[in-house]
Design brief:
By secondary structure, this protein is mainly α. The protein has 13 helices and no strands. The N and C termini lie far apart (53 Å).
Length: 269
C-alpha cells in the first residue's frame, strides 16, 4: 500500500505540474494538433484518389520512406541548440570578437555533421538495396538524370534546413527556453516535410500550401526528385519556387539575427 500511495502521489503531483504550466500544455496541444491535421489531410486526399493509380508500387514506397528516413537523420543536427546555447550562456560574446563570422562557424559544424551522416547512411542503404529486392529494383529504376537533379535539390535542402535551424536558435535572444517553439517547429516539420507520407499524393490547396513551406524542401522535395517523380518543367518550376523560399528564409534569418544582436549588445552580456 505504501508504494501504491507513493505512486498515486507522484501521479497527482505530475498532473498538478502539467496543469500549472498551462502555456506549455497549450503548446503541446498545438503540436499534436498540427501534426495530426497534416496526417489527416494526407489520408483524406489519398483516400479520395484511391480509385486512381498513384503510380507508387511497394518498392517505390519502401524506397521513398527509406530515403526520407536517411535525409531526416542527415538533417538532425544540433545547429539550433548550439546557437541557442551560445546566446544564453554568453559564448557569443567571445565569438563575436573573432574575425570569423560566428554563424559561418555554426554552419561549418552542421556541414561536417551532415557529411558524417551521409558517409554512415550510404553503405546502409546500399546493403538494404542488395538484400531487399523491392528496394533494389526501385533504386535501379531511377533515371540517371534524377541523380544530377537530386544534387541540386540537396543543395537547396541543406541551405534551407540550416537557415530554419538558425532562425530557431535566434529565439534564444528573447527567451531562456526555446523548447516550446521547437516543438511547434517539429509539428509543422512532421506535417509538411513528407516524412510521414509522400507529398505528391496530396491534392488541391493542401498540396499548394505545403509546396511553399521550407519543410517541404528539406525532405520531401529531394526525395521525390531522386525517385524521378519530379522532373522536366515541374522540376524547374519547383526549383525556382525553392529559391524563392530560400530567399524569404534568408531574409527572416537576417532580420532575427540583427534584431537579436541589438538586444544582446544593449543588455551588455
Amino acid at each position: 500500500m505504501g508504494r501504491l500511495a507513493a505512486t498515486r502521489l507522484y501521479y497527482t503531483q505530475a498532473l498538478s505540474v502539467e496543469l500549472v504550466y498551462r502555456f506549455a500544455l497549450l503548446q503541446s496541444f498545438l503540436t499534436i494538433g498540427i501534426t495530426l491535421a497534416g496526417l489527416l489531410a494526407f489520408w483524406l486526399a489519398a483516400g479520395a484518389a484511391a480509385g486512381a493509380s498513384s503510380s507508387y508500387t511497394q518498392g517505390s514506397l519502401i524506397a521513398y520512406f527509406l530515403i526520407v528516413s536517411a535525409l531526416g537523420l542527415i538533417h538532425d543536427n544540433r545547429l539550433s541548440w548550439n546557437l541557442g546555447s551560445a546566446i544564453r550562456m554568453g559564448k557569443l560574446s567571445s565569438s563575436m570578437l573573432r574575425p570569423y563570422p560566428f554563424l559561418l562557424s555554426q554552419i561549418a559544424f552542421a556541414a561536417a555533421h551532415a557529411t558524417l551522416r551521409i558517409v554512415l547512411c550510404t553503405p546502409i542503404l546500399i546493403l538494404i538495396a542488395v538484400f531487399v529486392p523491392a528496394f533494389g529494383d526501385a533504386i535501379s529504376a531511377m533515371p540517371y538524370e534524377a541523380l544530377l537533379s537530386f544534387l541540386a535539390a540537396m543543395a537547396l535542402s541543406f541551405a534551407i534546413g540550416w537557415l530554419v535551424k538558425i532562425a530557431l536558435g535566434t529565439l534564444a535572444f528573447s527567451m531562456t527556453q526555446t523548447w516550446g517553439p521547437e516543438l511547434i517547429f517539429m509539428s509543422f516539420y512532421a506535417a509538411a516535410s513528407g516524412i510521414a507520407y509522400p507529398p505528391d499524393l496530396l491534392t488541391g490547396m493542401m498540396k499548394a500550401a505545403i509546396g511553399w513551406t521550407p519543410f517541404y524542401y528539406m525532405i520531401g522535395f529531394p526525395t521525390l526528385v531522386l525517385l524521378g517523380r519530379i522532373a522536366g518543367p515541374t522540376l524547374e518550376a519547383e526549383l525556382l519556387r525553392g529559391v524563392l523560399v530560400l530567399g524569404v528564409t534568408l531574409a527572416l534569418v537576417i532580420v532575427l539575427w540583427r534584431r537579436g544582436l541589438t538586444q544582446f549588445e544593449a543588455v551588455g552580456i
